[in-house]
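Running this now, will post back.
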Amino acid sequence: MANTLIHETRRLQFPLDTLVDALIELEDKQGHWPARATVVGASIDHSTTTDVDRVILSIHRPESGQVIERRYSLPMIAAAIVNYCLTLRVPMPRNSTKSIEVLPDSVVLLLENTVMLQSRHEELSTLPAGSVPTPDALPPETLPPDTPPSPASPTDTPAPPESSAPTPDTPPPASPSPTAAVDGGANDHTAS
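Update: finished.
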């Protein structure tokens, strides 16, 4: 038997504020996020055509009072989104192909997956569906011998029987009784 496929495509769209949370989550897990730092600005850079520096965070560090910038490339953004989904238990197919798309106000993680299953039918032919007449549309002489006849419609009346055998509802025709035959013969004999 042939195999059949299921294609799945999912879009996980992260608005900028959710994306900032995902970046902080990954940086903190890796030990790179400054203690007590707060994000005071964030933007998506659309001027660049490369994967470098696509998201920029402005971070305030209270101990120094400075505002610094952190820039994130698309691979880092994708890693942050995947980590965030795993942390929050958002289901993601393990073997899916992942790609990232940058929109004006969000970033989208595209997940594509193909599942191969065993087919329950033979390979489909090139005969277009609907081109074969149904059995009730064919004349009776063209039906194969094992095709049951189509059910009669309510307006059909049964045809009269073709045999001359009596039916249970009609009495058999009268036949001469043996006595009549003997009497007839006796009358003929006496008449001569």
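The helical segments are 16-29, 74-87, 178-191. More later if anyone needs it.
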